[in-house]
């Protein structure tokens, strides 16, 4: 049962908070990170220094029996200083990601909407709120379905007990000093999960039995549904104020005093949504602080009203399930924050979904492991990559060959960091890989990072992140392809990171009647050869990373002259979609042979020399012939191509030196 023992936040959180608040060599960036978290409402690691040993927020701050705990306070530590959020603070983090594997697995499974069968090792009914407040309260609600509702052996009396426990715990949460904003940005999908109950007849009956509510009038229902649609369609856009005013007018005309107290809550939540998701991203730099504080004050106001309301009815769970107005929908829309603080160092640790500990073999034991927090702007709504960042709190850069090469480069650069190094990322998405590199290589004095992202919304978010990165990053809002021009790019609505110039429907097999649809946006394209001609003369590109969802060959065709003339020293190529193109292996092989490249095929588990036979096997996404007769690990066996130039122009490249340091004994020519 060690998974459920008390875990201390002190060692990991205090260290991270120290970095973020200015206790590292890069204090200006750290303070800027904290200020940005405050303005955008991103969850920030606790920096109070209150928690160590058995003293946790849950132990010291939550009134489990209705009375405040009295054993935690001495000297400068008081309930007010340790427990109560301050207006001028960024939201504290209640993710519990640093409380052990159990909570990490549980949060990621729930946040990423994976099936409950993945929770075999993390039973919901053992998630104690006294260990992790928000996660435990949410689990008590979801266990009604997972443990109680669909288990026939549970009697109605037992189901009622489970229901009342969940109700009581939700009331405890809203009586605690955790703010509404902190609940929403915690990464625990509390309000999203309520929809599992709101459309279940059995639970509706249980809720109505405990808190019978009169249904709203017809016009109120009509305008409620209109607001819900506006919220669902308004991710990153304004919710029309006139729609909300018509709903408010219908509530007022109905004369229902119970619903009337919702008017300031609903209108304030709409204003917060519009401030955070529409006005702030478009604001001038001087306006950001005022808009952010307005949103924060509104959050405080709504939180106070909800606490008073829930305390009066004593049945918050039943109230939210019975309510026919768009309160839950608005809260749900605000639980996808558009800014996340991520920890670059977490990519070097084993986690639920990534064996990052294997990367440590690349760096010596004395190499620094502390990095500044990254400010990452993402999509302000449901989006696969954005959800992953919120769930894991680490940059979503899991391309093993690239990670290994960047770490080797950091080690090589310990003594040669003054040599100019240029790293370009084609298909940068939200910029996770370049942002991570900016933290890992923050000791480099001459580092050029450049990302190319054609999808407008992603490029804009990446640009906002880049302005707060440890190193300067140039963000180009164009695609690199085989010819210049304007063309459409498509992506499935649930994941902008899957944007492709190929057929979106065919590549991702999205049926016409599916919940998620393919969306098209107009973008600009240029060839790498032409693009380089527009820049001032400089050294070669040390590393060109290409991951463009099936358009990799087009990028290579448009960079043919750059490769053969020695302007590119190293290539990292994702091979995921090459199986769709007949003859792809021969085309890549010919280009690298003409350019005098050697290289390897790599994933985090193994390395193979680059040869035509190996390359073709890896591109076809079959179990490689060199593995026949062996039992492959259960992890993804996808290989990446890393190749580097032997041209004279690349002899001083630190990236080439790093590649040789890692893989010289495995490398092969095509």
From TrEMBL:
Species the sequence originates in: Durusdinium trenchii
Name of the protein in question: Methyltransferase FkbM domain-containing protein
Matches recorded under Gene3D superfamilies: Vaccinia Virus protein VP39 (3.40.50.150)
